[in-house]
Amino acid sequence: QEVGDGTNFVIILAGALLEQAEALIRMGLTPNEIAEGYEKALEKALEILPNLVCQTVVDVQDSDVITKAIKAAIMSKQYGNESFLTPLITEACVAILPDKKTTFNVDNVRVSKILGGSLYQSQVVQGMVFKRQVEGDITRAEKAKIAVYTCPIDSVQTETKGTVLIQSSKELIDFSRGEENMLEKEIAAIAATGVKVIVSGGKIGDLCLHYLNKYGIMGVRLQSKFDLRRLCKSINATALPRLTPPSPEEMGYADNIYTDEFGDTAVVIFRQDEKESRIATIIVRGATDNFLDDIERAIDDGINNFKVLSRDGRLVPGAGATEVELARQINQFADKCPGLDQYAIQKFAQALETF
User: Which UniProt keywords are given for this protein, alphabetically ordered (predicted)?
Assistant: First the structure.
C-alpha cells in the first residue's frame, strides 16, 4: 500500500516463508523461535541492501533518468509496450512536479480510458479530460476564466410556500417574465465578471442554457464530486455552493477548453499550457476494455514507482539478482549464529531463493 507496486513479490515471499516455517515446525522448533529467526534475518537483509545499490536517481526532474528507472516496472506488466508507455508516464509525472519541495500525489495523474484505436495513439494532456459533452452550443474557449458551482444551475425556488393570485392574462405573462428576468440578471452578472465557462455539479436548466448561449458562456456538467474537486485543483478555482457571481480569487483559469472526439467518444478537455498545471491526464486508447484495464494497472505501477523515486532514488539490480545475493549473505550469517534461530535464518535465505 505504501509503495503501490510489488504485490507479486510480497505474496511469493510470504508464501515461501510460511512453507519453510512448516518444515521447521516439523523439525520441532517453536513458532516463537522461528519468528525470532525470521526477524534477525530481516534485520540482516536490511543491513545488506544499501551495499547492493547499483544506481541512484538524484534529479527527479530529469526525464531520461526517470524513464530508465520506471521501465523495469512497466516491463513486468506490459512487456513489449514499455518503450512507448514509459516516456508517457514520465512526461505526465515530471510535468506536475513543480519543484523539489512538494510531495508527489499519485492522484494527480489521471488515466482516461477511451475505447478504439491502438495503444500508440495514447497521449498526455496537461490538465483534465472528461468523457462528457458540453451542455450548450459553445464548444470551445481560450484563455478562459472558469466558475465552478456545486449546485444545479437553474431557477431557485423560494424557501416558503406561497400562493400567487393572478387576476388577468397580463399578470400571468408578467409573472413568468419576472422569473426569466431574474435568471437573466444572474447569468448576466456572472458574464460581467469575465467568466467564459461555467462548470456545474448539478443539472443545467433549459432556460439557463438559453441565457448561457445568449451570453456566449460554455456550460459543462460534471456528475462526480471528486471530479469537481480535482478540476478545482487543476484550474485553481473555488467551488461555489450557490449561483452567485464569483470573485476574482474564486475563478479558475485554463488556457484551452474544448470538445474533442476520440473514436466515437466525446470528451471535454481542460488544458493548461503553462507549467502551472497541477494535474496531468494520460489518455489511453485500445481495442478492448480488458486491454485498457491492463494498461491502466501498468500506468498506476509506473506512477507509484515515480512517487517512491521522489522520496528515495536508490535502485538495486533486478531480475532476482538482488534476492539471490541476499540469500547468499544471509546463509553465511546463519552459520555464525549460535542459537536455534539459525535454522529459521537459513530457511529465510531459502525463501528468498524462490525468486
Answer: ATP-binding, Chaperone, Cytoplasm, Nucleotide-binding
